[in-house]
Amino acid sequence: MPLSPEQRSMRARVAALTRWSKEDPQHTANRGQAGLLARFEREVDPDGKLAPAERRRRAEALRRAHMARLALRSSQARSARAAA
Prior knowledge:
The protein has three helices and no strands.
């Protein structure tokens, strides 16, 4: 019998909580953020010609734009759900 969306969500929550009980979430979060920043650095300077400080500044701006875009989409989805 397939799981309902609520049951899948509950199963995922149990898995995540079990994982966090066994490892440091800060270490995992730092690793993920470093990978994301590296991706943005590659996007803003694919040829590696910028100075490291300028590459980092631009990558941080792109990361903030990415997060703002996600927040906007989330807000739009919540509004659509509320209107339905």
